[in-house]
Structure formats: structure tokens, C-alpha cells
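[Discussion] Sanity-checking designs against the backbone

I'm trying to build intuition for which residues belong where. Below is a C-alpha cell string of 127 positions. I'd appreciate it if someone posts a full sequence so I can compare it with mine line by line.
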């Protein structure tokens, strides 16, 4: 975990965006291993209503993760089939985190045991 902090306007978002853009070009599949693996990004931007709503946070991250690692689609689809309200932006973040993100991620980790940790860039979580 790397946490950038500082007063408003000092460039934290610019740094997060630059890191995400530079890492985005490094493609990794389930068959390869690379030191830097960007798997998802989320930028909370209150001027864009949907980007400010926490209910889209885990849904967005798991979509990005599954796009990179198609093998977890089965886990994600099963979770949604069992509980369709997980896609509701007003659903509990704990429920979304557990069913949509952590469980599929744990299953993926078993397949990627030789790889270094996956990277997610999240900006303005406090907004």
C-alpha cells in the first residue's frame, strides 16, 4: 500500500494518474509474470456524479480485474446470479467488496501464486 497525502492542490491526483498511465502499458496475462501489474483504477471525482458514488467502486474494479483475467468471470457471474442486488450502487460496500471483489481475487491469487502483488490505483477516496 502506498498512500499519497497532502493538502488539496499539491498534485496527488496528477501523480496517481501518471502512475496509472505508465503502468497501464505493461500487459500481463495469467500465463506471464511482470513486476508491475496495474489491474484497476478508480478516481473519485465529485464533478462527475457516478465517479463520486462509492457504490460503483468495487463494481468498476472487479470489471477491470476480470477484463485482465477472464478466469474470474465465472466467480463474478456466480456472485451476481446468487445476489443481483450486488450491482445496485446503494448496496452495502462490505457486501460488494466480499462477493464481487475479494472472493474472485482470492481464487485468482491461487492461480498467480508466483507473481508479485497486483496493483490498483485509487485516487481521492476521501472525497
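Best answer:
Here's mine. Compare freely.
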Amino acid at each position: 500500500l502506498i498512500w499519497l497525502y497532502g493538502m488539496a492542490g499539491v498534485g496527488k491526483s496528477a501523480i496517481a494518474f501518471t502512475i496509472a498511465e505508465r503502468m497501464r502499458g505493461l500487459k500481463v496475462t495469467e500465463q506471464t509474470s511482470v513486476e508491475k501489474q496495474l489491474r484497476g483504477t478508480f478516481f473519485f471525482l465529485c464533478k462527475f456524479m457516478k465517479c463520486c458514488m462509492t457504490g460503483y467502486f468495487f463494481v468498476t474494479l472487479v470489471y477491470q480485474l476480470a477484463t485482465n483475467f477472464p478466469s474470474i468471470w465465472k466467480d463474478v457471474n456466480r456472485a451476481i446470479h446468487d445476489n443481483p442486488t450486488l450491482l445496485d450502487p446503494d448496496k452495502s460496500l462490505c457486501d460488494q467488496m466480499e462477493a464481487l471483489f475479494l472472493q474472485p481475487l482470492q481464487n485468482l491469487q491461487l492461480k498467480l501464486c508466483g507473481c508479485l502483488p497486483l496493483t490498483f490505483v485509487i485516487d481521492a477516496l476521501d472525497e
